[in-house]
Write a structure and sequence with these properties.
- This protein is α+β, with helices and mostly antiparallel strands.
- The protein has a domain of 88 residues: HIT family, subunit A (2-Layer Sandwich).
- Helix content is 26%, strand content 17%.
- The chain has four helices and five strands.
- It has a five-stranded antiparallel β-sheet.
- The longest helix is centred in the middle third of the chain and has 17 residues.
- Bound molecules: zinc ion.
- The site of zinc ion has 6 residues, from helix 3.
Length: 136
């Protein structure tokens, strides 16, 4: 049996050794389970919303489903309700942050070329200033 351990990322090796899956080690899954500190703006059974730690605009909130999905490629027909909730929550938070009228942008980056950094589906809510054409 070939030895492929060197090809695995450290986190994957640690996860494998502890009998865990990548979803167990995923930073957004861990935020959803309160295993790492965050300051949730909103939380319910399905979603958690937190400020982006590297804000690209005065308002920059991440809306994250608690269930692990990599990105839109990983969304099945049973997940359509979650996507709708994410969009509705974006509008709700935009209203609460006072940017509903001035305008805001909602972005979902998918995969490497899309600029996705964390491989767990999430929506960026951006606003509070005129946004340039650069997305994300
Ligand atoms: Zn995850």
């Amino acid at each position: 049996m070939p030895h492929g351990g060197a090809d695995l990322l450290l986190s994957e090796r640690l996860a494998a050794r502890r009998g865990m899956t990548m979803a167990d080690e995923c930073i957004f899954c861990r935020i959803g389970r309160k295993e790492v500190p965050s300051q949730p703006i909103y939380e319910d059974h399905d979603l958690i919303a937190v400020p982006d730690i590297q804000p690209a605009a005065p308002v920059h909130v991440l809306i994250i489903p608690k269930e692990h999905m990599v990105n839109l490629n990983d969304v099945g027909k049973n997940d359509v309700g979650i996507l709708g909730k994410m969009l509705r929550l974006a509008a709700k938070i935009a209203n609460e942050k006072g940017i509903a009228e001035s305008g805001y942008r909602v972005v979902i980056n998918n995969g490497e070329d899309g600029g996705q950094v964390v491989p767990h589906l999430h929506l960026h809510l951006l606003g509070g200033k005129p946004l340039n054409q650069k997305m994300g």
